[in-house]
Specification:
7 strands, elongated, Helix Hairpins, Heat Shock Protein 90, 10 helices, five-stranded mixed sheet, 354 residues, single chain, alpha+beta, two-stranded antiparallel ribbon
Length: 354
């Protein structure tokens, strides 16, 4: 981790000092001028002293206010600027990569809500950056592992094919494995590229009207090889529903949700997909049986790079559900998960009025 630069706050302190100092001197000068004018106007009489003597006294106090102003400025610059200096130091640490840094509000400053709000906002930002950095590190490790496995597999079976002396059945088997592992690599790379693309997208474009039910059925067919391997069955509660949306982006939602359901369903289980149309929304649910997602993880699974399965026994890189959430948000919709008693349900609500 980079060490933070030792930045000097002299310029900032000098500026604040000058502002306070000039304020004190200016106030003293204005007060002296007002008193002098009042004396000259005979609105105020100084007993036993001539006007010239009174002016000298006022001038003396005006000059004497300068060292007082210096002392006041020094004191004023030390006490209230301490939390500001601490905040700047914390920002320097954060900018250098120390995401564990936090701002502590002293007992005195806790009485002032603005300082507390600033400290809480900074600490929340630092915590989010720390979590993102941890997830990024995990993602790099996970992604490297996920990429390495199919690459090694492809290289190994390609080497066996090059050696020859294989039966026709063995050649077909090895070619099938190479094809599947290549598609797996392509899927992972595409997911990462898609996430990068939609994260930078702020406006939903290419909106058209299409058959939502047909789109989901097509996505199920695209994943046929995966669910056939596990002997899974589908129950489809899909009437014909038409929606206005970005067809290509929305396709990624259903592929990722269905792939997720297939991945975590035990062999021979049933996956249920249904669409409920209300006056304002379309509500799409994907239900599968399998391991229950703990409540503390249900909010995190939509974060990019997050994986519930830390053992990496299941394929994936923690990107699919992040894509789902972002695409749904672009459509001004919501996505939720409910998981209990070995049943997990993902619910996507999309508005009709796009």
């Amino acid at each position: 981790m980079k060490q933070p630069k030792k930045t000097s706050h002299f310029g900032f302190l000098l500026l604040f000092f000058m502002v306070v100092f000039l304020s004190v001197v200016l106030n003293a000068g204005i007060a002296a001028l007002v008193i002098y004018l009042l004396i000259q106007s005979n609105l105020i009489r100084v007993v036993g002293t001539t006007s010239a003597g009174a002016a000298r006294i006022i001038g003396f106090f005006a000059v004497f206010s300068i060292p007082i102003g210096v002392i006041v400025a020094l004191v004023a610059g030390k006490i209230p600027l301490k939390p500001v200096r601490n905040l700047i130091d914390s920002m320097d640490h954060l900018a250098s990569g120390d995401f564990g840094t936090r701002v502590n509000v002293g007992i005195v400053m806790r009485r002032y809500p603005p300082f507390v709000d600033v400290a809480m906002s900074f600490n929340k930002m630092a915590e989010q950056l720390e979590n993102t950095e941890m997830l990024r590190g995990d993602f790099i490790n996970n992604f490297s592992h996920e990429f390495k496995t199919p690459i090694v597999s492809i290289a190994g079976f390609a080497k066996l094919l090059r050696r020859g002396n294989l039966s026709r059945e063995q050649q077909q088997e090895y070619l099938t494995i190479i094809e599947e592992e290549s598609l797996r690599l392509s899927y992972m790379a595409t997911n990462v590229l898609n996430l990068t693309k939609i994260e930078n997208q702020t406006i939903l474009s290419d909106v058209s009207r299409f058959n939502l039910s047909e789109q989901i059925r097509s996505c199920i067919l695209l994943l046929e090889t995966k669910w056939e391997k596990k002997n899974l069955d589908f129950s489809l509660g899909l009437q014909e529903h038409f929606i206005r949306a970005n067809e290509e982006l929305l396709k990624q939602v259903w592929i990722n949700l269905l792939d997720n359901a297939i991945k975590f369903s035990p062999e021979g289980e049933l996956i249920e997909v249904a669409i409920l149309e209300t006056e304002q929304n379309y509500c799409v649910t994907v239900r599968n049986c399998g391991a229950t997602i703990p409540p503390e993880q249900q909010e995190k699974i939509f974060n990019k790079f997050y994986q519930c399965d830390e053992s990496h026994a299941a394929e994936g890189n923690g990107v699919g559900l992040a894509i789902v959430k972002r695409v749904v948000e672009l459509h001004r919709g919501t996505v939720k998960v409910s998981s209990r008693n070995s049943v997990t349900i993902f619910t996507v609500e999309l508005p009709k009025g796009l």
